[in-house]
Amino acid sequence: MTLHGQLYAILDLGYVREEDALVAAKALLTGGASLLQLRAKGHAPETIEALARQVLPLCREAQVPFIVNDHPDIAAAVGADGIHIGQDDGSLAEVREIVGEGMLVGRSTHSPEQARAALEEGFDYIGFGPLFPTPTKLGRPGIGIENIAAVQATVGSKIPVFCIGGIKRTNLPEVIAAGACNAVIVSDLLCASDIEAAAHEAAVLLASR
Ligand code: TZP
Ligand code: MG
User: Is the CB of residue 140 less than 8 Å from the CB of residue 133?
Assistant: First the structure.
């Protein structure tokens, strides 16, 4: 995977209605997302799988990896490009048993220690955050921007590090100045009046990294 300059967009059903999901996915892709994840907390597995089967071809057309959040079985069933798991979602080995060797497997991390551990375990990329408190991930404190540069210099020289959590187009320059090379942005894109333009703005800022 490329180490720098990537906007990772998430199609999060907490912000987008199911019936609007494909239009939003197209806008994120056209706007310049480098990866796209389907995140559907609390939705039935059948719903997630059905939507995944519709989003996947859009990603293939855009030549953007399609990642499924939380559900290795669905990722494997639909032939996704990747699966993203949290700290409490088991080990890499357990997920690999379900999805096989070829698939990208990403891990959420919330501290420099967790970031290093994920690299050592063999994950393909990490999320690092939430940098700032965010309604998208309620109950998690912001970890701040102080450790971005160190994590980017160590872990980020081997696998992509995606800063995440409360990142908006307005504070993205500050996050980049703190050392970030890649970012995940959820609500600031999905709640924008023009999702494609918002994604483009963020992608352009990151592309300079
Ligand atoms: N993991 C850590 S923060 C977060 C996730 C899924 C949510 C990021 O969403 P937003 O709306 O960009 O703050
Ligand atoms: Mg999870």
Answer: yes
How many angstroms is it from 135 CA to the middle of ligand 1?
A: 8
Per-residue pLDDT of 97-129, as tens digits, reads 999 999 999 999 999 999 999 999 999 999 999
147 contacts 179 by C-beta, under 8 angstroms: no
Chain segment 6-18, per-residue pLDDT in tens: 999 999 999 999 9
Note the pTM of the prediction, 2 decimals: 0.98
Nearest one of 42, 41, 56, 89 to 186, comparing CA atoms: 41
Here the contacts of 86-91 (C-beta below 8 Å, separation 24 or greater) are 87/114, 91/121
136 lines ligand 1 (CB under 6 A): yes
